[in-house]
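User: Fold this; tokens only.

Assistant: Input:
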Amino acid sequence: MGRYDEADKQYQLAIKADPNNAYTHFYYGILLSERECYEEAEKQYILALKANPNNASAHSYYGLLLAETGRYDEAEKQYVLALKAEPNDKDTHYYYGDLLEEMGRNEEAEKQYSLFATLSEMK
């Protein structure tokens, strides 16, 4: 069982100390997503991306949040941005494949899954 309340307080202190730290906002967004505090998590991902627009992980996790909340078109945009920043991010290819499959775009999904498999074999 996680110590979410304690972690939440630590993230808030870290943000107060350095409000423009992309990684603090990103990881706080993950914590909030895990707690299903989607509105607050989205704010943190946006702040992370404002501080570092090329953070592929932040784009990818923001895409996961958007997909989880049914905002598929917005999620797709985040995955595309993540892959633009880091074309070999195998996890983003997998998440993007899941989204495309959910959207009924199976051929495109298979391409993403294939890229995921290829990249997984390389590492």
